[in-house]
Amino acid sequence: MGAPVTRFEIGCKDSPATRRFYEKVFGWKTKDAAFNTGVETGGGRGIDGAITALGHEPHNYVMVYMDVPDADAACDNIKKAGGKVAIGPIDIPGNGGRFAWFNDPEGNLLGIFQPPA
Prior knowledge:
The protein is of the alpha+beta class. Helices cover 19% and strands 38% of the residues. The longest helix is centred in the N-terminal third of the chain and has 12 residues, at 15-26.
């Protein structure tokens, strides 16, 4: 079945400035989304993502998300395999799916995303 990496997220304090930076440096196209700024990286090979100002710590982070069919089951598997669930699973308002952040056994922070039904 697999769990493809389908999205990235760049955390920041100043969303407009961060948005301008990536637009200028890499030519990314950005657009306002419900809770963040959507990013289209272009080029036809990469994945799209978001720039997010949470309004609280952590401000500066980079997250990659793997798609999973069931966030709760994935979190259970993470714990059974020696990882730790750091956040979630959390419902994204407006039937936006569910996500969780976890630490692998080495401490790396990663994310899972369950697409909306």
